[in-house]
Design brief:
It holds the Pfam family UPF0020. It is a single chain. The protein is an alpha/beta fold and 288 residues long. The chain contains eight helices and twelve strands. Strands 8-7-6-9-10-12-11 form a seven-stranded mixed beta sheet. Helix 5 packs across helix 6. It starts with a strand and ends with a strand.
Length: 288
């Protein structure tokens, strides 16, 4: 549950403007039950922020300004997440959402948010949020006895979330990046039925027609370089998919045009907002 604590105007688009937030926060004197929660628990917290609009500062800059204000007001230690640092165990969490309409600040408390999973102890650049992976697994319609492949498995997020949904299926993941596979191995270490191997997603060592479902998040070429062209991936995935199989993948919308020329029939899309981008979940079936 998120308790809204305050709302202010948008401080502005520049890093210098961001410092105005401290003045905008000053009228907020009482933090009520939030302060009481900090008095009773360990006095450490973190801030998770997201932003809309063009700005010369990033979300970590916003988190640090909000965190410094709350630290003074609460007498608690702010644990910055800058540089990908994981929050301390048991830290309370605040949520800041900034848009041209203003800033909303809410208190989430000491419960972990939906995207945080106890199994995800290893991460990599560009890793997928677990709730998105879970949604993709549901869209795939995985059933008992099926063979499921993620040929760009990264830290294993999709495979693990899919297995939580349908544990009686068989899961295979591959990636060219050894560091990614090491993270996936660590995350999946307590879950049977997930096989991992180093492989090129455009040159899979799998028999034709042997996979029931492909659920994947290929590199977009932004946070993570894309080693293969998307048409080459679609061609190889078309080879290994079963005639009645299904592909679910998260891609930038400009790649949707490639389905028409790659022997896939696009059956649906779902648009998302992730890290300032607007990718789509594409759902497709093989054409004869």
């Amino acid at each position: 549950m998120l308790i809204q604590v305050l709302q202010t105007a948008d401080p502005g688009p520049t890093k210098a403007d961001l410092q105005r937030l401290r003045r905008l926060f000053r009228p907020v004197v009482a933090l009520g039950p939030v302060k009481a929660d900090f008095d009773c628990g360990e006095p450490v917290f973190t801030v998770s922020a997201s932003m809309g609009g063009r700005r010369t500062y990033n979300r970590h800059d916003l988190e640090d300004v909000v965190g410094a204000f709350l630290s003074e007001r609460l007498g608690a230690r702010f644990a910055s997440r800058r540089g990908g640092v994981r929050p301390p165990e048991g830290a309370a969490e605040w949520r800041a959402v900034l848009s041209p309409e203003g800033l909303l600040l809410g208190y989430r408390g000491r419960r972990p948010p939906l995207h945080r999973r106890v199994w995800k102890t290893a991460s990599i650049r560009g890793t997928l949020h677990p709730p998105v992976a879970a949604a993709m697994a549901r869209l795939a319609g995985i059933e008992s006895g099926m063979t499921v492949l993620d040929p760009c498995c990264g830290a294993g997020t999709i495979l693990i979330e899919a297995r939580e949904l349908a544990p009686a299926a068989t899961y295979t993941g591959s990636d060219l990046d050894r560091n990614a596979l090491a993270s996936a191995t660590r995350n999946a270490r307590h879950r049977n039925g997930i096989a991992l191997a180093q492989a090129d997603a455009a040159r899979l060592r799998l028999p034709s027609g042997s996979i029931d479902r492909i659920v994947t998040n290929p590199a977009w070429g932004r946070q993570v370089a894309a080693p293969q062209q998307f048409p080459a991936l679609l061609a190889e995935w078309r080879r290994v998919i079963a005639p009645d199989g299904r592909l679910v993948c998260l891609i930038p919308p400009e790649l949707l045009r490639h389905f028409e020329t790659s022997r896939w029939r696009l059956t649906g899309t779902r648009q998302l907002s992730l890290s300032g981008q607007h990718p789509v979940i594409a759902i497709a079936r093989p054409n004869p």
